[in-house]
Amino acid sequence: MSFTLHSLLERSADRFPDHPAVVDGARTITYAELDLAATRLANTLSELGVRRGDRVGLYLEKSIEAVIGIYGILKTGAAYVSIDVKAPIERSTYIAGDCGMEVMVSEEGRLSVWLEPDSPIRRVVALDAETQGNVVGRSTIEAASDTRLETGTIDQDLAYIIYTSGSTGAPKGVKLTHRNALVFVNWAVDEFDVGHTDRLSSHAPFHFDLSILDLYAAASAGATVYLVPPMASVFPVQINRFITEHAITVWYSVPSILSMLVQRGKLTHGAFESLRWVLFAGEVFPTKYLRVLMERLPHVRFSNLYGPTETNVCTFYNVESLPDPAAGDIPIGKTIPNTDGYVVGEDGNRVGRGEVGELWIRSGTVMAGYWGDPDRTADRLIDDPFAAEIVDKVYRTGDLVQVDSNGDFVFLGRRDNQIKSRGYRIELGEVETALYRHPDVIECAVVAVPDDLITNRLVAFANVRDGVTTADLIHHCKQTLVPYMIPEHFEILEVLPKTSTGKINRQSLTQSAQGDNT
After folding, report:
1. What residue ranges do the domains of the chain occupy?
2. Which of 282, 349, 411, 460 fits as disulfide partner to 254, beta carbons 3.0 to 4.6 Å?
3. What would the 3-class secondary structure string for 400-421 be?
4. What is the pLDDT of residues 109-142, one digit of tens each?
5. What pLDDT does residue 501 have?
6. DSSP assigned state of 132
7. φ and ψ at 146, to 5 degrees?
8. Architecture (CATH level 2) of domain 418-516
9. Which CATH class is domain 5-227?
């Protein structure tokens, strides 16, 4: 029994030392090599003073080096915080400062970001650089001890923090423990029968919660994980080629990638002979595209996984037959084992089958809280009102659901102003806050337009001072927002429509945006 995520790697390194652990393009690293490299990195970090409970940053493109970085950090007992290298520097430095990290694992080409005088980072460990000044490089790491550290880490210790979009305009850090991840990973390995000979895709970036299954389910089974190149997300034909050439057996991604594969990936009937299971999560899969995908891959099984970052995956639905587009979206299914789900009405009481309510989750997968934000944590993690004795906290997802005639949860939408696009959770308020930072934006609003391919497209409306153009707004957003949060369309208005109470009429703007995109 493994109680920590890095022990999954160590166990497979002992059992399958020469088996490929990670394949990154033309490069491969075995389990023994990965474990040794991570152990040396862990000992290097330990010499720098990194201890259990610390937060260590990871600022790398998805690569073998990034995987070494993750396991190296975990082996010290610290938690890793993966930062999107494509995000604006302002956002990246905010995250580093917010969670109090002092050490960053990065690479030579990205050192300048963290060596500025006002940087919160005191030391950078660069796997491909030379040791000098505040940079600890390759020669120091290679000379470190090969002995695995004994840190006393247990399953309830913090393993990683994932920063997601925040309604206040600042990202919020979701704290996940080893237990939170392992309850989900252990279930997935059993449910999808992941074994030593499997070849899992790794499509999601490491700052996205979908990456947890790819990385750790493979490590648990001693399977091989194949890192999907970034360009495959842009060109679906490359996804087709990637799955075929690497004989991928288990694919996991957001549905929008699979929808593009159906439409533009030149997918033929019976393709991907080695593929046995397609898993998707993060957004609603348009039924019309799912049906076509299932028709073209009749030998493959399909499963819909559901769960916000705060709960990992907590429900699932195995799609056993071709879905009917006329019947609406497929369900998000039933809770995974050792997980309970409540549907709760506005009055705080559980509602019956067929009635609409908010989904509350009680499980070992549920987060430890939000970093440095006790108020938000107390709002979302509450004592279980339906238990005789209060033992576990319950997470209020903010998602509206109902239970259908088969006992499956059906997702209906969000209660708040949060949407999903390309699998990423986005608070529209954070995008608006970024726009308001432009000195010449008088008033603005961002709305979401449903889209079959990516779930939602963002449209921004703004009242601005004379001379400001949509190009100016786009440039401004690129300086402060990650790419997936930048609206696809900007419209400048002389005045934004208002409701009778003086609030911005978002319904009117949404209707306008939908009209412009038809």
Report:
1. 5-227, 327-414, 418-516
2. 282
3. EEEECCCCCEEEEEECCCEEEE
4. 999 889 888 899 999 999 999 999 899 999 999 9
5. 56
6. B
7. -90, 5
8. 2-Layer Sandwich (3.30)
9. alpha beta
Cβ atoms within 10 A of the Cβ of 184, count? 27
pLDDT recorded at residue 314: 97
254-263 b/e (C-beta count within 10 Å ≥ 16 → b)? bbbbbbbbbe
* Structure-block tokens of residue 12: 């497979």
The whole-angstrom separation of Cα 432 and Cα 430 is: 5
> Class assignment of domain 327-414?
mainly beta
* Residue for token pair 């305009």: 169
344 phi and psi angles, rounded to 5 deg = -120, 130
79, HSE (Cβ side, Cα atoms, 13 Å)? 27
Q: Are 363 and 338 in contact (CB under 8 A)?
A: yes
Beta strands in 210-284 (DSSP E): 224-227, 250-253, 277-281
CA dihedral sign of residues 11, 16, 18, 23: negative
Written as six digits, the tokens of 340 are 């309970």
CA-closest candidate to residue 306, choices 328, 339, 277: 339
Q: Are 364 and 338 in contact (CB under 8 A)?
A: yes
Distance in angstroms (rounded) separating the CA atoms of residues 455 and 242: 24
Task: Specify whether the CB–CB gap between 412 and 329 falls below 8 A.
Answer: no
Helices (H), 16-152: 31-47, 64-75, 89-98, 138-142
What pLDDT score does 170 carry? Answer: 82
Q: What is the structure's pLDDT at 338?
A: 93
pLDDT of residue 235: 87
For residue 156, what pLDDT is reported? 96
- For the chain, residues with pLDDT lower than 50 are none
Tokens 């030149």 found at:
266
Helix axes 236-245, 255-264, angle to 10 degrees: 100
**DSSP run (H or E) holding 181:** helix 178-191
CA 488 to chain CA centroid, nearest Å: 21
